[in-house]
Design goal:
The chain is mainly alpha-helical. The chain is about 50% helix and about 0% strand. Helix 1 crosses helix 2. The chain is elongated, with a radius of gyration of 13 Å. The N and C termini lie far apart (about 35 Å).
Length: about 70
């Protein structure tokens, strides 16, 4: 049984935007959040870890309208 709705790319955008606007890298990722939101948060954590390890500039994960 699927707990979350499968989203189109268009439907995913607000979930990703919410994560980008509200999630603080290193914070706990709530397992009850939609998988798209969790994936975006995980990507943010990976990027933050990479930047800290390398001392380099962050990559742009996603940009609206691209």
């Amino acid at each position: 049984m699927r707990m979350w709705k499968r989203l189109t790319e268009e439907e995913e955008a607000p979930y990703r935007k919410w994560a980008q606007d509200n999630f603080k890298p290193g914070s706990v990722i709530n397992p009850l959040w939609h998988p798209v939101t969790r994936h975006e948060c995980e990507a943010m954590n990976v990027e933050t870890d990479r930047v800290q390890a390398e001392g380099s500039r962050p990559l742009v994960l996603r940009q609206e309208g691209m």
